[in-house]
Amino acid sequence: MNIWGFAKNHIVVYKTFKTYRPIQEICFTTDHMLMSFESRDSELLFMNPDSKELEMIHIEKSNEHSGKVNCMDTNLEANLFITGGKDGYVKVWTQEKQLIREI
């Protein structure tokens, strides 16, 4: 997978890495990336400003959807992720992937 961006009016590849699971969807905030996979789980990554590397944020998985994540979106003003799952729930997460609301 390549992460693209812009620098001095040119498109550049910032990071290339391998994923071992098919990716379903990706959402971004200013410095976080949430990936959902076809295997029904998701991972949260953070762009470390010092090392310029993507780092996985290890969190408790107990609040995950019990089924596949069907859709994701972000609220950039509040730095929130919103996920909708096959389990019928809409969940609102902080960019540290702490569950703050379940609807």
Task: Report on this structure.
By secondary structure, this protein is an all-beta fold. The chain has one domain (26-102). Helices cover 0% and strands 55% of the residues. It contains no helices and ten strands. The strands form three sheets. It has a four-stranded antiparallel sheet with strand order 3-4-5-6, with no helix packed on it. A four-stranded antiparallel sheet has the order 7-8-9-10, with no helix packed on it.
Backbone structural class: mainly beta
Radius of gyration: 14 Å
Summarize the biggest pleated sheet.
Answer: 4 strands, antiparallel
Helical content (DSSP H or I, runs of 4+) = under 10%
**Which percent band covers the strand fraction?**
over 45%
Question: How many beta-strand runs?
Answer: 10
Low-confidence segments: none
Give the N-terminus to C-terminus distance in angstroms.
32 Å
Note the total helix count.
0
What's the pLDDT, averaged over the residues? Answer: 82
Order of strands, widest sheet: 3-4-5-6
Form type? globular
**H/E series:** EEEEEEEEEE
Number of domains: 1
Give the structure's gist in a few sentences.
The protein has about 100 residues and is mainly beta. It contains no helices and ten strands.
Helix and strand topology:
Elements: E1 2-7, E2 10-16, E3 23-28, E4 32-37, E5 42-47, E6 54-57, E7 69-75, E8 80-85, E9 90-94, E10 99-102
Antiparallel strand pairs: 1-2, 3-4, 4-5, 5-6, 7-8, 8-9, 9-10
